[in-house]
Amino acid sequence: MSTSRPTESVLDRLASAAVSGADAELDLLARFGPVAVVIDCDGERRVVRLGRPSEHSDEVTLRGTAADWTALLDPAPSPGLHDLLSLGKSATTFTVSPSLEVLVRNLRILNRFVEVARETA
């Protein structure tokens, strides 16, 4: 019997959401605003590329605990844990870098990415 650690489960769900063709809206957003997303869950990292990011594209690092990611990816997330901005304000263990400006510039595609990952539960 395979026992998956919460970190692996979170990273796998997020990686599967980024697969091209998994969601038409995400693919369209990625086409016009490609971004590299570094997912950090309890120190384990995975890089997800939405679209075809180049050296001129943004890279965003989303860092949190398995509990942060699990709360965000819950099919019916609690208030204050329902999107990246809310989670960043509510959970002191969740951070975004390099800056709030980069997060806001990529917020639509990142939130759609989270919605798709949430639907893959």
Strand order of the largest sheet: 2-1-3-4
Oligomerization category of the chains in this entry: single chain
Number of strands: 4
Radius of gyration: 13 Å
Straight-line N-to-C gap: 20 Å
Q: Rough shape?
A: globular
Question: Which residues sit in consecutive blocks of at least 5 with pLDDT less than 50?
Answer: none
Structural class computed from helices and strand pairing? alpha+beta
Q: How much of the polypeptide forms β-strand, as a percent range?
A: 15-25%
Largest sheet: 4 strands, mixed
- Fraction of residues in H or I helices: 40-55%
Order of helices and strands: HHEEEHHEHH
Q: Overall mean pLDDT score?
A: 90
Count of DSSP-assigned helices: 6
Structure description:
- A hairpin with a 2-residue loop joins strand 1 and strand 2.
- The protein is 45% helix and 20% strand.
- The model has no long low-confidence stretch (mean pLDDT 90).
- The protein has a four-stranded mixed sheet with strand order 2-1-3-4.
- The two termini are 20 Å apart.
- It has 121 residues and is α+β, with helices and mostly antiparallel strands.
- The chain contains six helices and four strands; from the N terminus they run H-H-E-E-E-H-H-E-H-H.
- Helix 2 packs antiparallel against helix 6.
Pick out its properties:
4-stranded mixed beta sheet; 121 residues; alpha+beta; 6 helices
In short:
This protein is an alpha+beta fold and 121 residues long.
Topology at a glance:
Blueprint: H1 6-17, H2 24-32, E1 35-41, E2 44-50, E3 58-64, H3 66-73, H4 84-90, E4 95-97, H5 100-105, H6 107-119
Parallel strand pairs: 1-3
Antiparallel strand pairs: 1-2, 3-4
Helix pairs in contact: 1-6, 2-6
